[in-house]
C-alpha cells in the first residue's frame, strides 16, 4: 500500500495499489517549482506485524514545448591515450542529459579528418577507430555535438586528446656519414671518426646512447658519437679492424641499433729489422777452403716498403769472414786452424747487423758464433818400434808381460788425441789367441793359462788408434819369450798368514817374512798388488814385510798382498816374469786397539716424566757408539746428577743398557725440570769415556694431546719411531730443537667418561718439550702446531699406517676432559657460595655502622667529660673527682678489658642466657659512674656559690632522690633473687653478683635518707614518664636533651636563691644531683647500649651482673606500677662492689638516721657519696673484689631502712604528684629550645 506522507502540498495524489503519482484534479503547476514527496510503502500484514519503507520523490515542473537542449556534463574533456592503444578501445563516455528526456544524437563535428576516432551517435561512447602514431600526430582536439532534433536543441563539448609515446622506434644511424675510417698507428687518443643516430620517440625513449660492441680496450666512443683510439695501435700486429658501434635509447627496455665501421691502421717507420735468430752457431772444419759459404743469415722489417741490408759489425772478424749485404751469406776469407786457438774450444764470435736503408730506426743485431772443428791431423806414435817381454811357461791368465805406449799430437782433450789399443788378429793369429792388450792402459797380458814350451818366442802386433775424424792409427810389434823353469824363483808357501798386527804398531814393525829360491839366481822380492795405499814395504833382498804407514782397524781390517820373486837378471832387464811359482799371497790381519772414545747419538737427550710416575719408571734410553770392536765397544753408563733436596738421587741408569729410570716420586712437581749428565765408558767401564747432557721435564696430562688414529695400537707401536719423527719435524718448524715424547700407546677410549675402548683404533698420547725453556710446550700450542698440518701429517703417516690409515682427530686427554666437566659443576657451587658471601657482607653492614656510631658516641662522651672538668670552679678541691673521671674513661676501661679477656671463657654461658638484658644493664652501668662523678662536681659548685633554692625546687629534688633510691633498692632485691635462681653458675660469679647487690643496697639506703614524702611522689611520677620515653632509641635521645635543659635550669635557680635554711640547701643539692643523674644516664643509655650490642665481648666481666640487675629492675617495675625510671636508676649502683664504697655508704646511712643533724653534715654526706660512688664505678669493672662480711650486714640493715622510707614516701607524695609532674615537664620542655648540656 502506497501513500504520500508529506511534501505534496495537495498538488499530487498516489495510487495506493500501483504507486502511480499523478497531478491532483484541478491543480495547475507553476513552471520552475519543485517538490520533494515523502512516499511510504507498507505491506498488508496486521497492524502489529506490519512493515514499511519510506523514500523521497523529487518533482520539478518544466516549461512546456521542449524548450531545453541537451547538455554535456563538462564543456571540456581532456585525456591521454597511448599510441599503442588497441583499436576499438572505449576512450570516453560523452553522454549528455536532456531535461525533457528526448533522444540525443552525438556527432564529431571537427578535429578528426582522418576519422581516427568513432563516436556512437546514440550512446555517446568515444572509441579508437584507427591505430595512433605519436610520431605523426601527437594531439587531437575534437568538437563533439549533442542534439535532440530541434534546430536550437544542440550543444557542443571539446575533447582534448594527447597521444602518449611508447618505445616503438629504435635509433637510426645516419648513413650519410663515412663508414670506412683510418687512423695512424702509435697514436693514443687519436680521432678516428664520428657516427650519429636519431630516435623519433619522445622523452627518454628518444635519447640515444652510444657504445662499442667490440675492441673496447682499443677504442672509445663519446656521448656525441666521436670515436678515438684508447691506446696506441700497432699496424704490425693488426692493420684492420671492423668496429661495431651500438646505439640504444633510454627506455627501461631499450631498443638497439648497430653500425659496423671499417678502420684501417696506417703504417709509419717504427720498427727495426729483426733477425730470424738472435744468435747463430755454426761448426766449420779447420781445413775448409776460402770463399766457402758456411751460413746465411736473414732479418725482416715489418714496416711497409722496407729494404734490409746486412754487414759485419765486429772489426776483428772482417779478416776471416765476408757477409753479402743483400743476401746475408757468410763465407770464409781464409782457412782456419784449430791448433792456432789457445782456448780449449776453438770458437770465434762476432756481431752482425741488419738495417733499413730507407728507414730511420736503429739496426737489428745478431750474434754469430763460428766453432772451428778440429780435424784429425796426427796419428798415434809408439814410443818403441819393438817391445820385448818374458813369460813363464805356466803363467796364469791375466799375467802382465809388458806395456806398450803411444802418443797423439792432436790437442789434448780432443777425440783425436785420445789413444786406444787393440791386437792385430790378422798378422799373428795364434799369438793373438793367447795374448791380449788392455784397451786403455796398453798392458800386454795372457789371455789364457799358458802351457807352452820353454824358449819359445811369440810375436804380437799391437795397433794404436785415436777417435779423431777421420780415425788414424799406428802399429808396433811385441816379442814374448817363454823362460826356462829353472830360472824362475819358487816361494816356500803359496800363502802366508802372519799373526795380526796391532793398529797402533809403529812404522818399521815387522809383519811377515817371505822366502823364495831359484837355481843359481839372486832373488829380488816385490809387492805387485794389494798395497795400493803403500801401507807396507818389503825388503827386496830379505823378503821382510814391515809397516810403512800407520794402520787403522776401523778403515781397513785386513790386507791381501801379492808378492813376487824374480831373478836379478830378469829385474835388470826390466822384464819381470810372473808365474804360479814366483808369486805368493800374504794375508795380514789388523788387530783392533781401544783408540776411539764412545760417541753419543745425541749431544742432549730430552725426555719427560709424568707427575704420577711410579718408582723406577722408564724415562728415556741413551746410546753411545764406538768405532772399536769387541770389549772396546762395550759400554757402561753412569749418571752425574746435581744434588737434589732431601738427598734424593732423582734418577738412576741401567749400567749396560743406558735406560734411565726414576728414583723418586714427582707428585705436584709439574713444570719442574732436571738437568744432569750421562757418562759412557767403553771396555765395560775401564776404557775411554764421553758424556752427554740429559734434560728431563716433569709433565702431566695438562701438557699432552691424544692423537687418535684408525689403526690398531700394535701397528702404531711397530712404527712409533718413524711416526714420532714426523710429528717432531712439524713441531720443530715452530720451535727449533723441540722433542716429541710418547707417553702411552693404547686402544682408543670413547664414550661417557672415556670408559669404553676400541682396539681397532688407537690413542697415541704425546707431549713436546722446548729445549729453550726446558719445559713442556703448552697443550693448546701443541694442538695448533699439529692440527694445522693434519693433512700433511696424514700424507707422511700413510706409508706406515697402511692403506686407509690416517689420524682421525687430536683431542684432549681423558683426565683433562673429565676435570673440565667437574670444574663446570664446581663452578655452579662456587657461584652459590659467592652469592652467599655477598649476602653475608650486606648483612654485616649494619654491624659496621653500629661500631662507627659507637665510636662517635664515645668521642662525644669524652668531650662531655672535658666540659665537666672545665666547669669546675678554681680554688676548690676537685682532684678526687678529676682522678675518678680519668680512671673511668681511661684506666678503668683498660682494666675492665683485661679482666674480660681473663674471664672470657667463664662468661660465654651467661651471655647466652642474658643477651637481651645485657644491653640495658651495660647502659646503666656506664651511666652510674658518670652520675656519681657529676654529683661530686655539682656539690662543689654548690659550696662555691653557697646559694639555695626555694621550697618547691627543694621538694622536687628530694622527690628525685627518693625515686632514684627506690629504684636502686628494687634493683638490689631483684639481684639477690636472681643470684639464688642461677645457682648453676660458677661460685666466683655468684660471689661477685652478691657483692654488687650489697653495694647497691647500701647506696640506695643512703640515698633515701634525705628525701621527703612529697618529693618521693613527684620523683616517682617523673621517673615513670621518663621511663616510658626511654622505651625506644630515638625517644631516649630526645628525653636526654630535655633532662639536660631541665637540670641546667634547676641549677640556675639553685644558684640564684640564697639565704635559705640548711635543709633547703641539702634538698636543692639533692634535686640538682637527681636531675643531673637523669640527664647523664638518659643521654648515655643509648650510647652504652649500642656499645654493648656492637662489641659484646668487650664487657664480659660486667655482663652477668648487668643481666641480673636488668631482670630485677623489670620485676621491680611490675611491682610498683609506673615506676619505670626506678629500674633504670637502680642499675646505677650495680658496679659499687668494693669494700671502700660499702663502708662509706654504711657511715652515711648512720649519719642520716640521727635526724640529719645539720645542713653541713648533709652536704658533706652527699658529696662523699658522689665522690666514692665515682671511685666505686672506676674500680668495680676492673677488679671485682670480693665484698667483706661487714658490708653484707650493712646491706641487710640498709634494705630494712629502705623499705620504711619507701612506704613513707608513697603516703606523703600523692598530694603533690600531679602539680610536681606538670611543673617538671614544663620546665624541661621550655629549656629544651635554648639550652643544652
Structural description of this entry:
This protein is an alpha+beta fold. The protein is built from 22 helices and 63 strands. A hairpin with a 6-residue loop joins strand 38 and strand 39 (473-482). Helix 14 crosses helix 22, helix 16 (1062-1094) runs parallel beside helix 20 and helix 19 packs antiparallel against helix 20. It starts with a strand and ends in a 6-residue tail after the last helix. InterPro entries: Cadherin-domain_protein (IPR050971), Cadherin-like_dom (IPR002126), Cadherin-like_sf (IPR015919), Cadherin_CS (IPR020894), PCDH15_12th_dom (IPR056989). One of its GO terms (biological process) is homophilic cell adhesion via plasma membrane adhesion molecules. Residues 2-72, 73-173, 175-275, 276-382, 383-491, 501-600, 601-715 form the Cadherin domain.
Helix share bin: 25-40%
Number of strands: 63
What is the count of DSSP helices, taking H or I runs of 4+ residues? 22
Summed over residues and divided by their number, the pLDDT gives a mean of: 74
Biased composition (Low complexity): 997-1014, 1056-1070, 1174-1189
Main location: membrane
Keywords: Calcium, Cell adhesion, Membrane, Repeat, Transmembrane, Transmembrane helix
Pfam families: Cadherin, PCDH15_12th
Amino acid at each position: 500500500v502506497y501513500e504520500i506522507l508529506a511534501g505534496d502540498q495537495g498538488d499530487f495524489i498516489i495510487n495506493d495499489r500501483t504507486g502511480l503519482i499523478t497531478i491532483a484534479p484541478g491543480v495547475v503547476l507553476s513552471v520552475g517549482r519543485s517538490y520533494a514527496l515523502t512516499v511510504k510503502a507498507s505491506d498488508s500484514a496486521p497492524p502489529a506485524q506490519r512493515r514499511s519503507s519510506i523514500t523521497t520523490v523529487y518533482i520539478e515542473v518544466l516549461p512546456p514545448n521542449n524548450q531545453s537542449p541537451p547538455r554535456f556534463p563538462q564543456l571540456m574533456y581532456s585525456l591521454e591515450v597511448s599510441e599503442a592503444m588497441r583499436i576499438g578501445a572505449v576512450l570516453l563516455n560523452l553522454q549528455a542529459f536532456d531535461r525533457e528526456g528526448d533522444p540525443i544524437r552525438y556527432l564529431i563535428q571537427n578535429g578528426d579528418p582522418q576519422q581516427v576516432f568513432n563516436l556512437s551517435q546514440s550512446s555517446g561512447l568515444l572509441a579508437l577507430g584507427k591505430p595512433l602514431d605519436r610520431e605523426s600526430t601527437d594531439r587531437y582536439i575534437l568538437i563533439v555535438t549533442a542534439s535532440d532534433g530541434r534546430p536550437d536543441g544542440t550543444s557542443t563539448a571539446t575533447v582534448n586528446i594527447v597521444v602518449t609515446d611508447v618505445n616503438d622506434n629504435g635509433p637510426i644511424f645516419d648513413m650519410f656519414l663515412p663508414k670506412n675510417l683510418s687512423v695512424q698507428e702509435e697514436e693514443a687518443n687519436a680521432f678516428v671518426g664520428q657516427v650519429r643516430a636519431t630516435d623519433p620517440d619522445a622523452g627518454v625513449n628518444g635519447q640515444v646512447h652510444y657504445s662499442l660492441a667490440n675492441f673496447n680496450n682499443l677504442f672509445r666512443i663519446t656521448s656525441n658519437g666521436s670515436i678515438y683510439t684508447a691506446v696506441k695501435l700497432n699496424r704490425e700486429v693488426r692493420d684492420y679492424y671492423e668496429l661495431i658501434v651500438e646505439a640504444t635509447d633510454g627506455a627501461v627496455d631499450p631498443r638497439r641499433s648497430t653500425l659496423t665501421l671499417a678502420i684501417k691502421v696506417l703504417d709509419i717507420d717504427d720498427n727495426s729489422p729483426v733477425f730470424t735468430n738472435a744468435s747463430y752457431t755454426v761448426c766449420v772444419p779447420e781445413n775448409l777452403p776460402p770463399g766457402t759459404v758456411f751460413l746465411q743469415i736473414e732479418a725482416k722489417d715489418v714496416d711497409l716498403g722496407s729494404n734490409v741490408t746486412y754487414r759485419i759489425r765486429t772489426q776483428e772478424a772482417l779478416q776471416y769472414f765476408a757477409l753479402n749485404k743483400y743476401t746475408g751469406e757468410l763465407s770464409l776469407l781464409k782457412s782456419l786452424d784449430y791448433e792456432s786457438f789457445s782456448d780449449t774450444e776453438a770458437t770465434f764470435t762476432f756481431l752482425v747487423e741488419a738495417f733499413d736503408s730507407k728507414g730511420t730506426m736503429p739496426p737489428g743485431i745478431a750474434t754469430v758464433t763460428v766453432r772451428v772443428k778440429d780435424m784429425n791431423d796426427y796419428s798415434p806414435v809408439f814410443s818403441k818400434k819393438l817391445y820385448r817381454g818374458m813369460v813363464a811357461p805356466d803363467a796364469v791368465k791375466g799375467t802382465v808381460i809388458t806395456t806398450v805406449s803411444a802418443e797423439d799430437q792432436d790437442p789434448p782433450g780432443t777425440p783425436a788425441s785420445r789413444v786406444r789399443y787393440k791386437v792385430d788378429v790378422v798378422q799373428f793369429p795364434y799369438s793373438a789367441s793367447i795374448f791380449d792388450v788392455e784397451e786403455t792402459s796398453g798392458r800386454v797380458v795372457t789371455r789364457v793359462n799358458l802351457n807352452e814350451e820353454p824358449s819359445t818366442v811369440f810375436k804380437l802386433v799391437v795397433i794404436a788408434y785415436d777417435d779423431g775424424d777421420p780415425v788414424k792409427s799406428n802399429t808396433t810389434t811385441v816379442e814374448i819369450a817363454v823362460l826356462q823353469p829353472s830360472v824362475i824363483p819358487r816361494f816356500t808357501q803359496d800363502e802366508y798368514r802372519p799373526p795380526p798386527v796391532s793398529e797402533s804398531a809403529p812404522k818399521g814393525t815387522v809383519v811377515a817374512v817371505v822366502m823364495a829360491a831359484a837355481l843359481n839366481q839372486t832373488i829380488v822380492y816385490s809387492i805387485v798388488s794389494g798395497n795400493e795405499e803403500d801401507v807396507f814395504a818389503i825388503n827386496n833382498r830379505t823378503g821382510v814385510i814391515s809397516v810403512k804407514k800407520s794402520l787403522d782397524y776401523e778403515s781397513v781390517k785386513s790386507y791381501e798382498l801379492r808378492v813376487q820373486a824374480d831373478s836379478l837378471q830378469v829385474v835388470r832387464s826390466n822384464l819381470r816374469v810372473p808365474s804360479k811359482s814366483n808369486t805368493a799371497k800374504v794375508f795380514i790381519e789388523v788387530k783392533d786397539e781401544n783408540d776411539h772414545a764412545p760417541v753419543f747419538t745425541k749431544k742432549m737427550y730430552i725426555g719427560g716424566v709424568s707427575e704420577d710416575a711410579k718408582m723406577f719408571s722408564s724415562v728415556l734410553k741413551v746410546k753411545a757408539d764406538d768405532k772399536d770392536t769387541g770389549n772396546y765397544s762395550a759400554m757402561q753408563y753412569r749418571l752425574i746428577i746435581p744434588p737434589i733436596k732431601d738427598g734424593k738421587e732423582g734418577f738412576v741408569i741401567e749400567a749396560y743398557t743406558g735406560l734411565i729410570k726414576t728414583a723418586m716420586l714427582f707428585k705436584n712437581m709439574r713444570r719442574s725440570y732436571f738437568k744432569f749428565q750421562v757418562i759412557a765408558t767403553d771396555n765395560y767401564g775401564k776404557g775411554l769415556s764421553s758424556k752427554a747432557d740429559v734434560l728431563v721435564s716433569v709433565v702431566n696430562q695438562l701438557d699432552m694431546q691424544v692423537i687418535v688414529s684408525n689403526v690398531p695400537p700394535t701397528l702404531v707401536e711397530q712404527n712409533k719411531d718413524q711416526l714420532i719423527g714426523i710429528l717432531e719435524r712439524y713441531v720443530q718448524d715452530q720451535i727449533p730443537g723441540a722433542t716429541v715424547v710418547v707417553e702411552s700407546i693404547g686402544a682408543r677410549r670413547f664414550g661417557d667418561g672415556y670408559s669404553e675402548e676400541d682396539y681397532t683404533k688407537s690413542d697415541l698420547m704425546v707431549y713436546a718439550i722446548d729445549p729453550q725453556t726446558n719445559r713442556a710446550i703448552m697443550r693448546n700450542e701443541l694442538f695448533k702446531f699439529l692440527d694445522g698440518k693434519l693433512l700433511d701429517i696424514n700424507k707422511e703417516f700413510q706409508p706406515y699406517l697402511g692403506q686407509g690409515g690416517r689420524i682421525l682427530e687430536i683431542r684432549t686427554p681423558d683426565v683433562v676432559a673429565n676435570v673440565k666437566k667437574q670444574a663446570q659443576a664446581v663452578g655452579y657451587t662456587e657461584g652459590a657460595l659467592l652469592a652467599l658471601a655477598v649476602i653475608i657482607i650486606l648483612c654485616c653492614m649494619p654491624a659496621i655502622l653500629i661500631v662507627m656510631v659507637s665510636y662517635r658516641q664515645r668521642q662525644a662522651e669524652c668531650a662531655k667529660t672535658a666540659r665537666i672538668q672545665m666547669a669546675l670552679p678554681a680554688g676548690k678541691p676537685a682532684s678526687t673527682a678529676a682522678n675518678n673521671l680519668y680512671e673511668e674513661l681511661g684506666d678503668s676501661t683498660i682494666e675492665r678489658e683485661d679482666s674480660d679477656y681473663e674471664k672470657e671463657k667463664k662468661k660465654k654461658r651467661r651471655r647466652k642466657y642474658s643477651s637481651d638484658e645485657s644491653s640495658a644493664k651495660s647502659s646503666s652501668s656506664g651511666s652510674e659512674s658518670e652520675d656519681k662523678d657529676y654529683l661530686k662536681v655539682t656539690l662543689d659548685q654548690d659550696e662555691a656559690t653557697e646559694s639555695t633554692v626555694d621550697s618547691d625546687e627543694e621538694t622536687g629534688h628530694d622527690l628525685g632522690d627518693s625515686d632514684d633510691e627506690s629504684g636502686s633498692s628494687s634493683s638490689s632485691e631483684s639481684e639477690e633473687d636472681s643470684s639464688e635462681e642461677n645457682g648453676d653458675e660458677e661460685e666466683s660469679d655468684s660471689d661477685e653478683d652478691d657483692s654488687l647487690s650489697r653495694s647497691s643496697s647500701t647506696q640506695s639506703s643512703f640515698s633515701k635518707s634525705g628525701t621527703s614524702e612529697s618529693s618521693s611522689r613527684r620523683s616517682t611520677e617523673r621517673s615513670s614518664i621518663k621511663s616510658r620515653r626511654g622505651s625506644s632509641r630515638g625517644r631516649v635521645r630526645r628525653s636526654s636533651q630535655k633532662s639536660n635543659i631541665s637540670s641546667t635550669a634547676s641549677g640556675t635557680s639553685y644558684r640564684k636563691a640564697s639565704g635559705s635554711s640548711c635543709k633547703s640547701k641539702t634538698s636543692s643539692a639533692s634535686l640538682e644531683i637527681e636531675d643531673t643523674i637523669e640527664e647523664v644516664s638518659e643521654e648515655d643509655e643509648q650510647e652504652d647500649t649500642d656499645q654493648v650490642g656492637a662489641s659484646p665481648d668487650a664487657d664480659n666481666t660486667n655482663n652477668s651482673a648487668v643481666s641480673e640487675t636488668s631482670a630485677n629492675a623489670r620485676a621491680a617495675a611490675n611491682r610498683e606500677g609506673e615506676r619505670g625510671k626506678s629500674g633504670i636508676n637502680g642499675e646505677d649502683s650495680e658496679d659499687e662492689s668494693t669494700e671502700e664504697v660499702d663502708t662509706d655508704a654504711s657511715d652515711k646511712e648512720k649519719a642520716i638516721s640521727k635526724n640529719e643533724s645539720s645542713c653541713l653534715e648533709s652536704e658533706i654526706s652527699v658529696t662523699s657519696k658522689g665522690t666514692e660512688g665515682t671511685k666505686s664505678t672506676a674500680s668495680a669493672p676492673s677488679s671485682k673484689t670480693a665484698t667483706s662480711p661487714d658490708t653484707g650486714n650493712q646491706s641487710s640493715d640498709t634494705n630494712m631502712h629502705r623499705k620504711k622510707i619507701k612506704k613513707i614516701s608513697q603516703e606523703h607524695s600523692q598530694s603533690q604528684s600531679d602539680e610536681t609532674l606538670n611543673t617538671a615537664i614544663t620546665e624541661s620542655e621550655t629549656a629544651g629550645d635554648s639550652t643544652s648540656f
